[in-house]
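Duplicate of earlier report; Suppressor of fused protein SUFU input re-posted below.
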Amino acid sequence: MPTRVERFLSHLDRLSGGIEPRFFPVESTHPGLPGVTAIVYDDVPESGMLTGITYGISLADHPVWRVGKPELCISVKSDDLRWPLALGHIGEVQGGDNPFCYGDTINFGERIAPDSDMTGFVLFAPAVLDRADYAGIDVGETLPVNICGLYRSTMPSAATSTTTGSRPSGSSTGTPTTSCGRPPSDAAWPNGHVRLVRPLVNRTSCGKRPDPELRFVRTASTSKTDTGIL
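Output:
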């Protein structure tokens, strides 16, 4: 009987065509919660791109996760590991506290990597995956895993950001919102085109911001076994 993580990695192997990823573990700072691993694919989905997917966020519990538990994904035209490593650190720092709802934004308050002016992320459905590939991933538990995409965005300065912890119910752009853990319908964006994602409102998800020092930690890449993921 495959374990939970084996089921998830098998799903990713199918999506990548068996490409071997690199694994970057982030040790847990939360008693009772496991760490989060950033799984990094080079030249996926295209040459010169990095795709990172987390594993470990969905091992926590949150009261709003009623239809699924999230893991995070990012695909960028870059060779800078800060982008996928940021996902692992966000997941570890905010794990169990942040529900990672579609439409939420995460504000770092400064540039995430030197190759971009982007200072934050907005969460929505992954642009590089079909709905059947990111929603309802069976890991052998009651709640499936849903992969949530992070998109780079320019956020306001900390002085103007709203950090009340509440989540937007909508915005002036007409952007739809969905229940936490529930993937949006194909009609959620005009023409069902998730690449139309754009910054929503100036809020930091759950009023928390990852420690800016964390995302520059260069965690050594290891194998599945060495990371403890298997």
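Helices lie at 4-16, 82-94, 131-134, 224-227.

Merging into the original ticket.
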